[in-house]
Amino acid sequence: MTTTESGPPAPAEIAKGFADGREDSLADAYRRWSKLVFTLCLRALGDRGDAEDVTQQVFVSAWRGRGSFDPGTGELGAWLAGVARHRIADRLAERYRAQRDQAAAATLAEQGVAPGHDELLVDRVVIADELDRIEEPRRTILRLAFYEDQTYPQIADRLDLPLGTVKSHVRRGLLHLRDRLKEVTGDDAS
After folding, report:
1. Taking CA 147 as the corner, what is the angle to CA 142 and CA 153, rounded to the nearest 5 degrees?
2. Fewer CB atoms inside 10 A, N or C side of the chain?
3. Predicted structure pTM score
4. Which long-range contacts (CB under 8 A, 24 or more apart) does 10-15 make?
5. Structure letter (DSSP) for residue 7
């Protein structure tokens, strides 16, 4: 099947253009497969906002990683579904870690803490809460850096982001967290 003057390009044409780095093919791929990717994300995540975010991440990741796609060995739609599965798994793991951190903080709060540890507990709870409020991808970057001890290059590779972008998100995120801790603790010394 080939392109007709009145119809959209055929999937094989979109795949070839996508692999060749043609931006119009990225737009065609989005028009053709974004509903499928969104449906996969929505069914797995159960949240429309998360599904929209992950759908966008799928196409950004796919575009940046298009060098690993070979139109001769598979269909672009199936490849995009594979990328979506990875991004969904990342989002679910992120949710799990957030729930685990909140549960741990709640448990510590319920158990009480030895004198001298109260402020540390407050800091942990505030940080966990503030991390949940930070928008993506900054939240994921901070969690990968400080909860999973990943290096900036590892994070950049995993999220398909430029290294400078990762560093900027970490710096801005840390400044934000520092400011929030100051507000909560009333500590103006820096």
Report:
1. 55
2. C
3. 0.56
4. 11/75, 11/76, 11/77, 12/71, 14/76, 15/69, 15/71, 15/75, 15/76
5. S
